[in-house]
Specification:
Order of helices and strands: HEEHEHEHEEE
Number of strands: 7
Number of helices: 4
Distance between the termini: 39 Å
Number of domains: 2
Radius of gyration: 18 Å
Largest sheet: 4 strands, mixed
CATH superfamily of the largest domain: Fe-S cluster assembly (FSCA)
Structural class: alpha/beta
CATH class of the largest domain: Alpha Beta
Length: 164
């Protein structure tokens, strides 16, 4: 950025698409729906984010990565606000993000629109072969937001990002 160039929200959103989730490095914080808002006066930037869980172990890393990217594109000052209301929902994951999760080997959560019935009895498809002939092995995977499944058709274990 040259001294005369003012930052725009669209420039900042484009830059934030390059900030990857530290726990799932193939998907950005924008695709995950974690980055909720971006504001600028042309020089100073405020980014609002909502983590997937209030106790997310990657929270501080995400805040740092966002601030670093905003400085990289020319922000004079950066404020990263973490808000917990409304709570993050897996419905905020973009379609592109869902495709990236699946390609990574994580079954994306269903879009539930708050329907508790879907959340209690989800239909989970194997991200490798698309079979729904799967068995839950553990409701807690490598992070709190994932569950471990086993596909009875391709005989592979996988994690599903929980619908929240």
């Amino acid at each position: 950025m040259t001294p005369q160039t003012l930052l725009t929200e669209s420039m900042l959103w484009e830059a934030l698409k390059e900030v990857m989730d530290p726990e799932i490095p193939v998907v950005s914080l924008v695709d995950m729906g974690i980055v909720r808002a971006v504001e600028t006066d042309g020089r100073n930037v405020t980014v609002t984010m909502t983590p997937t869980f209030s106790g997310c172990p990657a929270l501080v890393v995400m805040e740092r990565l966002i601030a670093e990217k905003m400085k990289e594109v020319g922000a004079e000052t950066v404020e990263v606000k973490t808000v917990l209301k409304p709570a993050w929902t897996s419905d905020w994951i973009s379609e592109e993000g869902r495709a990236k999760l699946k390609a990574f080997g994580l079954a994306p959560p269903p879009v539930h629109g708050g329907d508790v019935n879907i959340m209690l009895v989800p239909t989970v498809a194997c991200p490798r072969c698309d079979s729904t002939n799967v068995t839950v092995k553990n409701t807690f995977g490598s992070t709190l937001c994932r569950a471990i499944y086993y596909c009875n058709d391709c005989q592979d274990a996988f994690e599903q990002f929980k619908p929240l």
